[in-house]
Design goal:
Low-confidence stretches: 1-11
Number of domains: 2
Helix content: 25-40%
CATH architecture of the largest domain: 3-Layer(aba) Sandwich
Largest sheet: 7 strands, mixed
CATH topology of the largest domain: Rossmann fold
Structural class: alpha/beta
Radius of gyration: 19 Å
Strand content: 35-45%
């Protein structure tokens, strides 16, 4: 749901473009992901590839990489980014439930905690099985998860807190994100309500509301899920200096040769 002021406004920056603006100061994080991925086998498949920041980096290194992204706006932004760099690849609009690709990959990865957006455990279990089948023998699955411990410890339902901010120099707009959390501890589900306030000339220009659910996992819990899907050589490392999730974990699992 969007709430607009009564003013006649000029073209607004989309939420997808705001996401990129928020990430502008975090390109070191993108480079770190790419350096990790380069050590694994091409061809790559990125789950929830978004606006294509990581895909572009891999393709510029002459590595084959494709993506999965159901958001039409994000796919459009990604297409523009690839075109700008004279790059081409496939971005498939498939969900975890409908995932069905004809080729196999050396490495499948999901970073930034986007895998946590799949909250139904039955779907997650089947999704991991499908990803195992999409890997070449000896290929790797890389998944970054996070536990929102900071928010859990300071849990105050219906209390709004300030999150990320960004500035668009082209339009003079400033974004301030506010959010409020509700937790279902028995199901390990976080329900985050967000309000994106966009200001121009110190006045509220427009606002957008949404709600996102994420699921968190313990290390042993997710390791057992990977084993059940058929994976071996499962390792988990803590992601240090992650600006988005303080308690991020990077799982790497292998399909047998």
């Amino acid at each position: 749901m969007s709430l607009h002021t009564n003013k006649i406004t000029e073209a607004r920056t989309s939420l997808g473009e705001w996401y990129d603006l928020i990430m502008e100061n975090q390109m070191n994080v993108i480079h770190n992901y790419v350096s990790i991925l380069e050590k694994h086998k091409s061809d790559f498949l990125e789950l929830s590839s978004g606006t294509g920041r990581i895909l572009t980096q891999l393709l510029q290194k002459s590595l084959m990489a494709e993506g999965l992204e159901i958001g039409s706006e994000l796919r459009q932004i990604c297409a523009k980014r690839l075109q700008k760099h004279d790059l081409q690849t496939n971005i498939y609009a498939q969900t975890p439930e409908t995932l069905s690709l004809s080729k196999k990959y050396g490495t499948i990865y999901s970073v930034g905690g986007t895998f946590c957006l799949v909250t139904d455990l039955r779907i997650v279990t089947e999704y991991l099985r499908k990803l195992y089948q999409l890997l070449l023998n000896g290929g790797s699955l890389i998944i970054e998860l996070f536990v929102p411990w900071k928010q859990i410890i300071s849990d105050k339902p219906d209390v709004w807190k300030t999150g990320k901010t960004a500035y668009n120099p082209k339009t003079g707009e400033q974004l301030i994100v506010q959010y409020s959390d509700i937790f279902d501890f028995s199901q390990q589900i976080r329900q985050m309500h967000s309000r994106y306030d966009v200001y121009k000339n110190n006045e509220l220009w427009y606002a957008h509301y949404d709600m996102v659910e994420t699921r968190w996992y313990g290390i042993n819990e997710f390791t057992l899920m990977l084993e059940k899907a058929g994976f071996h050589k499962i390792e988990c490392t803590v992601v240090k200096d992650n600006p988005f999730h303080e308690h991020a974990m990077l799982f790497t699992a292998t399909k047998l040769e």
